[in-house]
Amino acid sequence: MADSLYDRYMKAAAAHRAHGNSCTSCSSEARCTAGQRLDESFVRLQDAYLNQQKQQRH
């Protein structure tokens, strides 16, 4: 069975945090290529999850 949107969002958040904790090239102002990809994935999934939550409340 495919992971739910929430599961994918949480996995992306964990990968984003883990990379940020270990990458010496990333900072709050700039990210390496892998960090940028992880950040974009996290933001996209976070937006999708929050939009889903808003729709369920209406």
Topology at a glance:
Layout: H1 5-22, H2 33-57
Helix pairs in contact: 1-2
Would you count the extended β strands for me?
Answer: 0
Low-confidence parts lasting 5 or more residues at pLDDT below 50? Answer: none
* Largest sheet geometry: none
Radius of gyration using CA atoms only: 13 Å
Structural classification: mainly alpha
Specify the overall morphology.
Answer: elongated
Number of helices: 2
User: What is the helical fraction, as a range of percent?
Assistant: over 70%
Strand residue content: under 5%
Mean pLDDT: 93
Element-level helix/strand string: HH
Distance between the termini: 28 Å
Describe it for me?
The protein is an all-alpha fold and 58 residues long. The protein is 74% helix and 0% strand. It has two helices and no strands. The protein has helices spanning 5-22, 33-57. α1 runs antiparallel to α2. The radius of gyration is 13 Å and the shape is elongated.
Task: Label this structure with key terms.
58 residues, single chain
Short description:
This protein is an all-alpha fold. The chain has helices at 5-22, 33-57.
